[in-house]
Amino acid sequence: MLLYTLCMLAVIGLSVFYLFFYRNWRRERKLQQPFPDQWHKILETQVPVFNRLPRALQHQLEQHVQLFLAEKSFYGCDGFEVDDTVRLTIAGHACLLIIARNFSDFDEVSSILVYPDAYHVREIESDGIVVSESSQIRAGEASSRGQVVLAWAECEEGAVNPDGHHNVILHEFAHQLDYLDGTADGAPPLSGEQARHWQETMTRAYEHLRHSLRHHKKPWLDPYGATEPAEFFAVLTEAFFQQPGHLEEEQPEVFVALRGFYRFDPLSLSIAAPEHTQR
Fold this sequence. Notes:
The structure is a single chain. This protein is 52% helix and 13% strand. It is of the alpha/beta class. Strands 1-2-6-5 form a 4-stranded mixed beta sheet. Helix 7 (168-178) packs across helix 9. The chain is globular and about 65 Å long. It starts with a helix and ends in an 8-residue tail after the last strand.
């Protein structure tokens, strides 16, 4: 009886450890390993902002990248070969989004599928009576099931144009952050005053963008952001990290809201001070 009791206690103890402590223990062990010099060189080349970050934030990004590569599976599609340059480029840009946040924000991301170029997707839609099929060309997509699909040609374009309008990696991983509360609706999980400020600010900015397009005015943001709130958030994220000065000039309240969520100031390349997270 005593042996049985001891065995049961051991099983319970191991179960508790696995459920609540194993992941952190495993991550701490992974981070004890040195960051490879070759990886560092790839980040310098493929994630240009890395070179301008203060050393403390470079180290933080390296740690996130290290965990990302250890835990996420990469798959090449249509014969594409995924090498370290591909992995580091994607991981480096994705982890920029959480450079001042917890790595656990990407816990639900499990796999990254990489096509050599834009790819075709067949979609079947039904209104209950008529079934229609269409073919779309995509550069990337994100799923609530933890899967991200990317076209490498588009990833490279964003990497070599760090001040450009588009970065498909930032865009699709912003969707993954949007999924943190269970649905991609353009409102990642926030609370209290920050949530209220976000709702008011983003609704006003979203309607302003749609109004500009309806009246054939040149919009301040990529028109794709006007398709739905989830895309608005993803496109805003691209602008926040790639063209922060322009975003702050055009929509200062939006800039403040994003700075509060990401806890990072892309203009000063520093952690956002507490007073910057609220209006």
